[in-house]
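hey can u run this one w/ zinc ion bound, need the structure tokens asap thx
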Amino acid sequence: MRMDTLKRAIGLFACFMLLSAVPFGAMAMPEWTFPLSPEIISNREGYLTLANKEVLLSGDYEPDDLVTLTVRKVYTGMQMRKAASLALEEMFEAAEADGCILYVKSAYRSYQTQKTMYSNRVSSMGYDDGLVQKPGASDHQTGLGCDILNLEWTRKEKMNKDFAAAKEAQWMAENCWRFGFVIRYMEDKEEETGIKYEPWHLRYVGKEAAQYMYEHHQCLEDFTADWQGYLADWESRGGSFERLLLQLNQLNDVIVLETNDEGEEELSIFY
Ligand SMILES: [Zn+2]
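ok here u go:
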């Protein structure tokens, strides 16, 4: 019992020293006040990766955690990144509970597939009509973007914005953020995205970012400009993003929240 108390006292002391050393070592660093954590903004997982006409993904950009989708889909073998696939499972189940049966129409597309689709489109039209994205510009290449429809619309040859009136589309517009998705090409963001309204194209960005974008009515281009603007300003005030991430990683390694027998959370320290 006494040993426990002693150990706890040493732990608390070490903890205090460590916590007080951090602000001391980072005296010049301004406080991080952006509503999303630096870890999310660092895009370590790639969930915030942008692909559009101006920001092209390279030919060899291929996610290394693609999995075959388990949810209802039009074609077998469709793939997405693991986190997006798991989030789809959660979302499809919730939609079904609300009477909305969803189908994935299109998911991950490689650079090469997009290249073939693009050149087929251009040669059949005789010019680039802008309806098929150039290779590298497609959100589908991130492995986080997908097209989701109801049964009726899977039978149509072409998708158009009338899908927005379907109850499944309305359900997705209202609820997809709860599962980490956003409507990638919003109706009033055609200028920002460079793409016409696509109520069927969902993009996984993670739950925190999706909630933030939903609440601020931002498309991915808006959101990227938002956090990049904040970061630039924060760094101009003396912040170092690299150093901040390093500090946060060190803290995560050393201090762990544990639950004691009484069910209370307490800090434990590991050397
Ligand atoms: Zn799409």
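The two ends are 22 Å apart (CA to CA). anyway lmk if its weird
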